[in-house]
Amino acid sequence: MQIYLPIAEVSVNAFLLLGLGGIVGILSGMFGVGGGFLMTPLLFFIGIPPAVAVATEANQIVASSFSGVLAHLRRRTVDLKMGTVLLIGGLIGAALGVQIFNTLKAIGQVDLLVRLSYVVFLGIIGGLMFVESLNAIRKTAAGARPPARKKHTWIHNLPFKMKFRTSGLYISVIPPVLVGVLVGVLAAIMGVGGGFIMVPAMIYLLGMPTKVVVGTSLFQIIFVTAFTTLLHATTNFTVDMVLAVLLLVGGVVGAQVGTRLGARLKAEQLRILLAIMVLAVCGKLALDLLLEPSELYSLGQAAGH
Amino acid sequence: MLRIALLLCLFALPLRAEEVVAGLSQSRISISTNFDGSEILIFGAVKRETEIAEEPPLEVIITVEGPSKPVAVRRKEKRFGIWVNTDSVEVDAAPSFYAVATSGPWNEVIKDVEDLRHKVSILRAIRSVGAEISGSEDFTDALIRIREGDTLYQTNIGSVEVSEQTLFSTSIQLPANLTEGDYKARFLLTRGGGVLDVYETSIAVRKVGLERFLFRLAHDQPLVYGLLSLAIAIFAGWSASAVFRFIRN
């Protein structure tokens, strides 16, 4: 069934969108990631204009993270104070990101920026995850325990310290704000929640306990992506509600299935699968940049009219 | 004096004598949610008060043109190992859709001068002035090539059927990725490459229903639209969580 998207102005198969939403939903349920980093490139592949894909995906992430954060709030695994500090950084970052996005859109380089960001970040995260889970599998096979984390780093010597009771931390607000800004910029440019960057940053950089990390990151992501959606909607008019709803329905159902599937697999196996997937998407995007395209010319909106 | 006037009349008569009377199967195309392209049937007849001239044969050209917009055409070049957009040429006005159908081979139905005057072929329908980059024809060619690939530009040679030098008909396929606006349908009647008569009518292509509502809302009330999108997202997120809990209990 073909459906005409009012903002993207293209006609696509509704079942294809539901299916994509479902598959990404299953993956996000299995791996506990938002799935934005997979969905946005997939939308590029099926011919949704990048600007619309990025803006609409931000809207979809609001839904999936809201659903997730409710569960975490009930379990009291959300550090609201830390979330708010990250959020302040996130909003600054998102505003910056949309500015960068619009400037580059005007000079015709937004595609390049979005694709490059994807290749760089997916490459780094996928590579790290792959190596780390391989090591973990080897260690469990050898029966060794992972080493304890170093407790004190240079981060603990910065000024403006604050107490974060839920996380049991007493640290400076500078690192969380900076992490927030970085994630905000990425959310606006790449149309992702940024969980895949924030979660490692919270664990390794801020030293937060793992059990509050996911809930807190989801809490922050809701507000940053909501803000990004509004910015894209008011400055670029690129949020496609029909597209968002189709992806949402598929995503919500898929997430339920994914959570059940995920419970049957081992953590290391899950992570290595996720890493392979991330690297595959990264590879496809990198090839597009490296190989000579079959069509050297592209059409865009003319500026200044 | 009278003789000259009579002579002029005689010359003018065959030119004016044949006129187009045309019709469309639909003068309005609605882009609804399930819009998947559309086919319009275009037909007409030649009205004349004189005998049918046998030579040269009567030919018909039909064009359908979407609203024109400036387009930036960008070219990729390899920089630092990756393919990056470098040069760009702005085409001042390129129709968002352009189909031209003829009743015979191109060089038999219209002369180049007439093409230039009436802007019939795709290349002439695109206006590109003040392009400063050398080889800007490459960019216009690329624009036509890309749009032809998307079936937004079509040249259908010989697809107009003319019977008895009087009735003619053709059909034009409108693709699914159509933009809104007033489309212009033109009928050109030619003999020996010279244009005898031109008739114009318009086709209104409009988003309707939900499509129209959402598109207008997104552009007129972007804040309301953004907030509505968020409300839908939050509601969907909440209901997913509620349903999930209900199933588990």
Task: Describe the protein in words.
The complex is a heterodimer of chains A (305) and B (249). In chain A, helix 1 crosses helix 9, helix 2 (36-45) packs antiparallel against helix 3 (50-74) and helix 4 crosses helix 6 (174-190). In chain A, strands 1-2 form a two-stranded antiparallel sheet. In chain A, strands 3-4 form a two-stranded antiparallel sheet. Chain A is mainly alpha-helical. The longest helix of chain A has 33 residues, at 110-142. Chain A has helices at 14-31, 36-45, 50-74, 80-106, 110-142, 174-190, 195-205, 210-235, 241-262, 267-290; strands at residues 2-4, 11-13, 161-164, 169-172, 297-301. Chain A is 70% helix and 6% strand. Chain A is globular, with a radius of gyration of 19 Å. The model of chain A has no long low-confidence stretch (mean pLDDT 79). Chain A has one domain (2-144, 151-290). With 249 residues, chain B is of the alpha+beta class. Chain B folds into two domains: 12-207, Immunoglobulin-like (Sandwich), CATH 2.60.40; 208-243, no CATH class. Chain B is 34% helix and 41% strand. Chain B contains seven helices and twelve strands. Chain B has helices spanning 2-17, 106-109, 112-118, 122-125, 136-149, 209-220, 222-248; strands at 18-24, 28-31, 38-48, 58-65, 68-79, 82-95, 98-102, 153-156, 161-163, 167-174, 181-191, 194-207. In chain B, the strands form three sheets. A six-stranded mixed β-sheet of chain B has the order 2-12-11-4-7-8. Chain B has a four-stranded antiparallel β-sheet with strand order 1-3-10-9. In chain B, strands 5-6 form a two-stranded antiparallel ribbon. In chain B, strand 11 (181-191) and strand 12 (194-207) form a beta hairpin. Chain B is extended. The termini of chain B are far apart. The mean pLDDT of chain B is 80. Classes of the chains: A mainly alpha (305), B alpha+beta (249). At the A-B interface, strand 1, helix 3, helix 5, helix 8 and helix 9 of A face strand 5, strand 6, helix 5, helix 6 and helix 7 of B.
